[in-house]
């Protein structure tokens, strides 16, 4: 399976500081699972404004880790949640964000072993 992360943006931001890069990756691994749980809970409760806020909060982390395939999904999910419409589409996007982000965490965890 191909990697879904691309750390070139993070590498540029960190300007060669591998310790800072490692801290950023660790922060992603530590915070995103809680965001995913909150996202699923907000979805299950049909709390669309909360779902939109949670997804909005996740956008920078997803960008830093270069998860390109999720960028459009996250923007669409945030927009749909703000509107509170199309719950079936919201569910598909929540599951996609959850699954892809979980895969990214696994990849990043493996990568951390090389630091």
Structure description:
With 115 residues, the chain is an all-alpha fold. It has one domain: Four Helix Bundle (Hemerythrin (Met), subunit A) (Up-down Bundle). It has 5 helices and no strands. The longest helix is centred in the N-terminal third of the chain and has 27 residues, at 18-44. The two termini are 22 Å apart. The model has no long low-confidence stretch (mean pLDDT 94).
Low-confidence runs (pLDDT<50, min 5 residues)?
none
Please identify the top-level CATH class. Mainly Alpha
Output the number of helix runs.
5
In terms of DSSP E residues, the strand content is under 5%
Global mean pLDDT:
94
Give the distance, in angstroms, between the N- and C-terminal Cα atoms: 22 Å
Number of beta-strand segments: 0
List SSEs in N-to-C order. HHHHH
CATH architectural grouping: Up-down Bundle
Could you estimate the helical fraction of the residues in percent?
A: over 70%
Largest sheet: none
Rg, rounded, reads: 14 Å
Structural class estimated from helices and strands = mainly alpha
What would the keywords be for this entry?
115 residues; mainly alpha; single chain; elongated; 0% strand; Four Helix Bundle (Hemerythrin (Met), subunit A)
């Amino acid at each position: 399976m191909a990697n879904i992360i691309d750390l070139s943006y993070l590498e540029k931001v960190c300007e060669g500081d591998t310790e800072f890069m490692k801290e950023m990756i660790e922060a992603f691994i530590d915070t995103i699972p809680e965001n995913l749980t909150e996202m699923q809970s907000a979805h299950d409760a049909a709390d669309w404004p909360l779902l939109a806020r949670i997804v909005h909060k996740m956008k920078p982390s997803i960008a830093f880790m270069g998860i390109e395939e999720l960028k459009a999904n996250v923007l669409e999910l945030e927009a749909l949640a703000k509107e509170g419409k199309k719950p079936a589409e919201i569910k598909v996007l929540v599951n996609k964000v959850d699954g892809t982000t979980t895969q990214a965490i696994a990849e990043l965890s493996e990568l951390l072993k090389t630091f």
